[in-house]
Automatic annotation (TrEMBL):
Keywords: Cell membrane, Membrane, Transmembrane, Transmembrane helix, Transport. It comes from Hymenobacter taeanensis. This is Gluconate transporter. Belongs to the GntP permease family. The chain crosses the membrane at residues 28-50, 57-76, 96-129, 136-154, 174-201, 222-245, 257-277, 298-317, 337-365, 377-400, 420-440. NCBIfam families: gntP. The keyword Transport applies. It is found in: Cell membrane.
């Protein structure tokens, strides 16, 4: 009965948004209230779960998205994004732009959390799209596929790192195996699948579309790259110092603070305010007006993400995730396939990759103790499963849909299919490594 309620909730959400044309935030609230009552939560429990879901979800992304929107606005308005796009095209040409974007996503996706990388790269994607009149989804999807794989598969991202600790796996081997699997997964889900999406019409958010400036009015190349990619550079330096210095040293608290994405984004925005704003002769009042405009463009996105978080929390509070996991545990399937399947089922129902991964790990721990399954591969199998079939209850789905200004149908065709390809190819890579490693003596 519980699974039927969850299924009806997902169908109601899709129906209200796609066919009923109801505002997505309102649709989430209506479905969340109905689902919570149907699952037996009292009024107090239901409203508490909604408040917690909204607060926890927005608390983790609000600062990053708002600061990222501000940084993206000044990168676009100053001409820095136009300058970066010109350099990329000059080096690689438009023929290989998908591969250029994919490699960029790989590089920045290692140190940056997904939401940070997404909002940071949006101005770069859109500047290439508008300057060279290329399809937005075709250009942007390979980069976002790379970011998504890094988030789901590889440490130091939250879910893989937590899974490594729970399964007592090796963080180094997990990263190495994950990289071997990630490369074909991103190539197939990004540049290869992206070839089928050239026909999707996308008019991205106006906040990141600026007038083409003459070359003599653009900031310098070095200034453009450093100012735009400063969050990546800062975080890479901090993480490098954390790896080199002994833990618990005198600099450890400061480095932990500086590694926070919101701190990195704030520091980067302050620098860009000067290097791409007042330092180029632009009045401070004009820069602040641009920042205020950028926040208006992401306000609805934040509400939708909060709504997705509220629905997720109601499902968690009702015990749905554990019920799904337990119902799948006694199937007799191989542990690696079972871990993927449990994570995938929870992901489809709850929308959160992190919750899907951590819940599946808790269920698989007893099984791991009784089997000889490679713990590094179990981390990757669950990570791959946690990315399957991102749809209306996933915050990442709405980030992509709203920033690229797509219809629900085109978002399902592009974003949801990309995530599913990554998940399935990831499982195939895990099973292949499980077969090959014993032959290689590992």
């Amino acid at each position: 009965m519980t699974l039927l309620i969850v299924l009806l909730a997902v169908l109601a959400l899709i129906g209200l948004i796609s066919w009923g044309k109801v505002n997505a935030f309102l649709a989430f609230l209506l479905v969340t209230l109905g689902t919570g009552l149907a699952l037996g939560l009292t009024g107090g429990e239901l409203m508490g779960a909604i408040s917690k879901g909204l607060g926890d979800t927005l608390g983790s992304v609000l600062i990053v998205i708002v600061l990222g929107a501000m940084l993206g606005k000044i990168v676009a308005d100053s001409g820095a994004a136009q300058q970066i796009a010109a350099v990329l095209i000059e080096v690689f040409g438009t023929r290989y732009i998908q591969w250029t974007m994919m490699i960029t996503g790989f590089i920045i996706g290692i140190p940056l959390f997904y939401n940070v990388g997404f909002v940071l790269m949006i101005p770069l994607i859109f500047s290439v799209v508008y300057k060279y009149r290329l399809p937005a989804v075709y250009v942007g999807l390979p980069m976002l596929a790379a970011l998504s794989v890094m988030h789901g598969f590889l440490p130091p991202h939250p879910s893989p790192t937590a899974l490594v600790a729970q399964f007592q796996a090796s963080i180094g081997l997990t990263f190495l195996y994950g990289l071997l699997i990630a490369i074909p997964a991103v190539i197939l889900a990004g540049p290869v699948y992206g070839l089928t999406l050239r026909g999707i019409v996308s008019v991205p958010l106006a906040s990141f579309v600026s007038e083409t400036l003459p070359e003599n009015a653009l900031p310098g190349r070095v200034n453009s790259f450093i100012s735009s990619l400063l969050p990546v550079l800062l975080l890479a330096v901090v993480l490098g110092l954390q790896a080199l210095l002994p833990p618990g040293g005198p600099l450890s608290p400061a480095l932990t603070f500086l590694a926070e994405p919101s701190v990195v984004m704030l520091a980067s925005l302050l620098v860009a305010t000067f290097t791409l704003g007042t330092g180029l002769g632009r009045p401070m009042s004009s820069v602040m007006d641009a920042y205020a405009s950028s926040v208006k463009d992401v306000a609805l996105i934040l509400l939708i993400i909060g709504g997705a978080g509220a629905l997720k929390e109601v499902l968690v509070a009702s015990g749905v995730s554990h019920e799904i996991a337990q119902s799948l545990q006694h199937t007799g399937l191989p542990p690696l396939l079972l871990g993927w399947l449990i994570a995938a089922a929870i992901r489809v129902c709850l929308g959160s990759a992190t919750i899907a991964g951590l819940t599946a790990a808790g269920v698989m721990l007893p099984t791991m103790a009784l089997s000889h399954t490679n713990p590094n591969l179990m981390v990757l199998s669950i990570g791959a499963g946690s990315l399957l079939l991102s749809h209306f209850n996933d915050a990442g789905f709405w980030l992509f849909k709203e920033y690229f200004n797509l219809s629900a149908k085109d978002t399902l065709r592009s974003w949801t299919m990309m995530e599913t390809i990554v998940s399935v190819v990831g499982l195939g890579g895990v099973l292949l490594l499980d077969w090959a490693l014993p032959l290689l003596g590992h």
